[in-house]
Design goal:
By secondary structure, this protein is α+β, with helices and mostly antiparallel strands. It contains 25 helices and 24 strands. It is found in: Nucleus.
């Protein structure tokens, strides 16, 4: 009879469930405590420099951030392999994005590109349940990419000319990386972040999208949102809401860094992405976490954005930590910049739309696609986005129908706002009359109300949506407007659906006298109740873009206005049509009288709108070489709409500038920002070009508000100059661009210091003299700030006026 052991078993070794012999309790490695792991780490780890910018390669040159990240990761991989070389168990970690095996049996990356996991492998593996059902026993689980395959991403140059970029060439190495890894997107970010060339930025985005079309089409939409520094269209009101507190707690948790050390890093680098990279660069884990995917990152950000309730901040922090833990190298830098929505890679809207058009056109017609096809595609995509500004629908339409049929697959839709048409600014009445056409041209003059521009959508079910000029949904802000439209017989029976445009203006409820924009800003912004409203408003309708299922965008303004007036009924002090007169250039006295009336009514001036389109002419009297369209053109600034604004002071011009930095003042202003550095914004590159410092026009309340918003230690300021700032000046803190200020000034001058509009007029830039703060433009986003081209136009007008003044002076004396 076999000899019994003390544990009641036989003399033969005890068997595990899988039939293998159990390891004796006394054998080496059978029981490893935390002391074992930390002892080995202390013996095997080499010191890691937490200052990657000072690392040197063998040739003595500085190592780039991305290269350093790969170097550190390779060091960690080697340490991890050495630590676990005696462990023969395979740990299978399943994740919603990956099925990854970490093989500790000594199989190196050079021995196989991938590892196939069969049913027998699963039976001996330790599994970690991450919410994924086990794979079917009859199928292979996955093809597992190794570090060598991920390393192939670093060889891709996305910024080359599209005809020279062959996505198929890279597909062989990357085809196992599905879903598309976030590392691929961050590699693109590092390349476009390193250049100021708009051509290279467009090339990078174009080639990246072309590669995704072959590798993983489902990731294109997520990649586009992540590249454009947003997670959804503005009218969905999706906001990440990740403040400095959440981010700092997450970084301390993930990296183990102390609060003083974190602050020290921030003081040193100034950019929160660089701080996160530095804080996590030397963090080591016993088991590599699953790789991030593009779609997985975007989906997690959506979870953060929709988190509500008392536990939402805790949930957001955990989701941020999850992403940071799984992020490696440059992924951490760009993840963190995405959290604060300050990616700064130059992928502005026009750039992204151009890249989408080119990517799908090159894919359809090949690398030798004709230039005219590319230009036509770009125009189609831009126009479609202007009528339907949602990348989800645009990309879905491109994938299904291609560029040429995009307008059919992604049409103008109720409750999705269209981008507003814009008017050109004129200096005075004389310039307006010159621009508008010949003496027989008919146009309408309308009051330019000092309120909030609004776009109203109404469908056959009675649903009403109200959008701002930059597409924010503000239906909850104006329940009184909704009530007027629904309850006061404003909408006539023949009107079943519509999109109209108007100005919401504060008014006196009894007299109907117009109030200022400042009084309108005193209303609540969200979930306003009618009973709590203290500022009465009136909607002044001035255009109609959609009626009873038909688009009116291509209809002349004269017809659109007739349809507007025949589809609605005015209600005193609640709903009205914009005050207007019809005129020709011969009616100068009537126009001047109407202009003065608008000023007396507390309006900003008048809008002049062409009633019918004018064809291009080349006669000596008109000298018009291009047509003037009276149709509604979303997102375009046309000379068929002209602004004639009143003078605020001796200067008739104003600029909408973005504050990008500040210095502390002197005396009683020593604790406040004064002066403030202001900039224009280049819409093609997204770069902010410094134009002046401003220190006048601020109230005490404004000083306090600005100091609180841009206080030291908040994520709204940084010591390090952002890559998208052009300024030779160094303020005490740079500010994250997020506001637009209206600034008055005396004149525009050439400047040897400021870079604004440099190269447009001369080799020198432009600045403004005697800038004075007027107000915050809460109705404008930073992408609507004044451009360098507009600043240059003001300078040229000023020079023309100066020449005319000299001629008048000459005639007086000679």
């Amino acid at each position: 009879m076999p000899k019994r052991t003390t544990d009641g078993g036989s003399g033969t070794p005890k068997r595990n469930r899988n039939g293998t012999a159990a390891t004796p309790a006394s054998s080496p490695g059978s029981k490893r405590t935390l002391d074992f792991f930390f002892t080995n780490r202390s013996l095997n780890n080499s010191p890691v420099d937490r200052k990657p910018y000072q690392e040197k390669a063998e040739n003595g040159n500085e190592i780039a951030d991305e290269e350093l990240a790969r170097k550190l990761q390779a060091q960690f991989d080697a340490e991890y392999h050495e630590l676990n070389q005696n462990n023969t168990a395979r740990q299978l970690v399943q994740d919603p994005e990956h099925t990854t095996i970490f093989d500790n049996t000594g199989v190196s990356n050079s021995e196989a590109d991938t590892l196939k996991i069969s049913e027998s492998d699963i039976s001996v593996a330790e599994t970690v349940d991450c919410g994924v059902r086990p794979p079917s026993p009859s199928k292979e689980v996955a093809l597992i990419p190794t570090a060598a395959i991920y390393g192939s991403i670093a060889t891709i140059d996305f910024t080359v000319s599209p005809p020279k970029f062959d996505p198929i060439e890279h597909l062989t190495a990357l085809k196992r990386l599905i879903p598309a890894p976030y590392l691929l997107l961050t590699h693109l970010f590092t390349q476009v972040d390193a250049t100021r060339s708009r051509i290279k930025i467009i090339n990078g985005l174009t080639n990246f999208i072309r590669l995704l079309m072959l590798l993983d089409k489902s990731a294109i939409t997520s990649a586009v949102w992540l590249s454009t520094n947003s997670i959804g269209p503005p009218y969905t009101a999706l906001e990440l809401g990740i403040g400095g507190s959440i981010l700092s707690k997450a970084l301390k948790t993930v990296s183990g860094i102390s609060a003083p050390a974190l602050k020290s890093l921030y003081d040193k680098y100034g950019d929160i992405g660089d701080v996160a990279f530095e804080a996590k660069v030397s963090v080591r884990t016993l088991v590599d976490p699953p790789r991030l995917s593009i779609k997985g990152v975007y989906d997690t950000l959506l979870q953060i954005a929709v988190a509500k309730g008392s536990k939402s901040q805790e949930l957001k922090q955990k989701l941020v930590e999850k992403l940071l833990i799984r992020g490696r190298g440059e992924e951490v830098r760009y993840l963190t910049r995405t959290f604060v929505q300050h990616l700064r890679i130059g992928a502005v809207r026009t750039t992204m739309l151009t890249a989408l058009a080119r990517a799908f056109t090159f894919t359809e017609y090949g690398p030798d696609c004709a230039q005219d096809k590319l230009q036509k595609a770009e125009e189609i995509v831009r126009q479609c986005y202007a009528r339907h500004p949602n990348y989800n629908d645009i990309i879905a339409g491109l994938l299904v129908s291609g560029v040429e049929k995009l307008a059919e697959s992604c049409p103008m839709t109720l409750h999705i706002p269209i981008l507003p048409m814009l008017g050109s600014i004129t200096k005075d009445m004389s310039e307006m009359l010159v621009k508008i056409g010949n003496e027989h041209t008919e146009f309408a003059c309308e009051f330019k109300y000092d309120g909030q521009r609004a776009q109203i959508h109404y469908d056959e079910s009675g649903k009403i949506s109200i959008f701002s000029r930059h597409l924010d949904l503000m239906t909850d802000k104006y329940p009184d407007i909704v009530d007027v439209l629904q309850s006061h017989r404003v909408i006539l029976d023949s009107t079943r659906s519509f999109i109209l445009e108007g100005e919401i203006v504060a008014v006196n409820e009894v007299t109907g006298a117009l109030g200022s924009f400042q009084s309108l800003s005193n209303r609540g912004r969200k979930d306003v109740q009618i009973a709590s409203i203290s500022v009465t408003v009136c909607l002044f309708a001035f255009d109609l873009m959609y009626l009873n299922g038909e688009s009116l965008l291509d209809v002349p303004f004269r017809t659109r206005r007739e349809l507007l007036r025949s589809s609605f009924a005015p209600v005193p002090h609640k709903f009205a049509f914009a005050e207007s007169i019809d005129a020709t250039p011969l009616d100068q006295d009537a126009i001047s009288t109407f202009f003065r009336s608008s000023i007396e009514s507390k309006c900003e001036g008048i809008m002049v709108k062409l009633l019918d389109s004018i064809a291009a002419t080349t006669t000596a009297s008109t000298r018009r070489t291009k047509s003037l369209l009276s149709t509604y053109t979303p997102d375009l600034r046309r000379e068929s709409w002209l602004k004639v604004k009143k003078d605020y002071d001796s200067a008739a011009d104003s600029l909408d500038l973005v504050p990008i930095g500040g210095w502390y003042g002197n005396g009683r202003k020593s604790n406040f920002w004064s002066p403030v550095l202001l900039a224009v914004r280049d819409p093609d590159t997204g770069v902010f070009q410094a134009v002046c410092k401003c220190m006048t026009g601020f109230t005490d309340a404004m000083y306090k508000e600005t100091k609180a918003k841009y206080d030291e230690g908040t994520i709204n300021v940084t010591r390090l100059k952002p890559a998208d700032f052009e300024t030779p000046l160094t303020p005490e803190y740079y500010w994250v661009p997020q506001e637009v200020w209206e600034i008055k000034f005396a004149d525009v001058t050439l400047s040897p210091l400021y870079p604004a509009a440099q190269g447009i007029i001369s080799d020198r830039g432009l600045s403004i003299r005697f800038p004075r703060f007027i107000r915050k433009r809460d109705d404008k986003g930073v992408d609507e700030a004044s451009s360098p081209a507009f600043l240059a136009e003001l300078y040229q007008r000023q020079q023309s006026r100066g020449a005319e003044d000299q001629d008048d002076l000459y005639e007086q004396f000679y």
